[in-house]
Amino acid sequence: MSIPRFMRALLKTAPKAGLQWTAQHPVPRVSGNDVLVRVTQTSICGTDLHIYKYDAWAQRTLPLPLVVGHEYVGRIAALGDLVAQSSPLKVGDRVTGEGHLTCGFCRNCRAGRQHLCRNTLGVGVQRDGAFADYLVIPARNVVRLPDAIPDVWGAVMDPLGNAVHTALANDLVGEDVLITGAGPIGVMAAGICRHVGARHVVVTDVRDERLQMARACGATLALRVPTAAADVADNEQATVQALRDTMRTLGMTEGFDIGLEMSGSASAFRSMLATMNHGGRIALLGIPSEAFPIDWDQVVFKGLQVRGIYGREMYETWYRMITMLTGGLMERIAPVITHRYDAEDYETAFATALSGAAGKVILEWEPPAAAAAAAGG
């Protein structure tokens, strides 16, 4: 595979909103334990939107300049010397990869809990990422894809892994599940819950387009939460009442067994606490924009278990994803992929993602015909 000296890339170069496109960025060099991936498709993450807007989190987190992006699929273009000697990976393999780079030396890493590494670095956040023709990644982070998984699903396995990690944090079989937040990860989580045997899956959000996606992906009921009242407390009270009405409609008499908080909304979380069954289990993936109070009586006297989720378990989540995708999950959650754009049309792609009405937005880095030819198709 011929490798050029320069490549196209999408960068954050200045401390302001927006991204910069270049066709003359140096192709990264491959060291002994790395692989070079020829990127074919990427998808836009909520993190990328924070970077695009250059909000307070981005301002305190990003080193500039930076090639952004961390959700990708591609083919191995080159192997580092040590990888070529000791790894089953081959040039031409179709791969995606874990976007969290861990230290390997802290207590959690050495205990096999790399997803809890205190020294984690993010691809496309603290080091150059995947919105480019080529990406260098440590070989240990690479995940080979079976032929049965199309490229587009490889490009969204990073966020799908967040949904899998959150949903499977607790036993779902026969349980009633409440998901607050119908962004792409929340919608995929709804499909996962149904795929593995949850009884009822109720999804809440403020946007009708996203609720429609949730229904298409298997939600038993998708509920638009009230936002009309001027007072936040009144909206929360109305949401709790709407959820209780939903429970009666579904024949639920005690509350939700499992809560998956995907929105980062204080109001959504408080409404979830109010409608959980005693002994219920909550997994939190949504990140609030600021600290907020909750009614701790709901947690203590109901005996609730609350667990924070970050990223994916390395690498058990990836094995579970591959098994579920090849076992019917792709068809169930297909509606979550809503838009595809050529990479050079990134401004339109980001505008679509920022609209709040889209699911996963894909950037194509290689024409489909060229990708097929390179793969021998």
How does this model look, in words?
The structure is a single chain. By secondary structure, this protein is an alpha/beta fold. The chain folds into two domains: 6-159 and 312-374, Alpha-Beta Complex (Quinone Oxidoreductase, Chain A, domain 1); 170-308, Rossmann fold (3-Layer(aba) Sandwich), CATH 3.40.50.720. It has 14 helices and 18 strands. It has helices at residues 46-53, 56-61, 81-86, 107-110, 151-154, 157-167, 184-196, 208-216, 232-250, 266-275, 296-302, 316-333, 346-354, 368-374, and strands spanning 6-12, 20-26, 34-43, 66-67, 71-79, 94-97, 100-101, 121-122, 134-138, 142-144, 176-180, 200-205, 221-224, 256-261, 276-284, 305-308, 337-342, 360-364. The strands form four sheets. Strands 3, 5, 6, 9, 10, 17 and 18 form a seven-stranded mixed β-sheet that branches. Strands 13-12-11-14-15-16 form a six-stranded parallel β-sheet, sandwiched between helices. The longest helix has 19 residues, at 232-250. The model has no long low-confidence stretch (mean pLDDT 95). One of its GO terms (molecular function) is zinc ion binding. Keywords: Metal-binding, Oxidoreductase, Zinc. This is L-threonine 3-dehydrogenase. It comes from Cyanidium caldarium (Red alga).
Describe this protein with a few key phrases.
14 helices, about 375 residues, 2 domains, Rossmann fold, seven-stranded mixed sheet, six-stranded parallel sheet, Quinone Oxidoreductase, Chain A, domain 1, globular
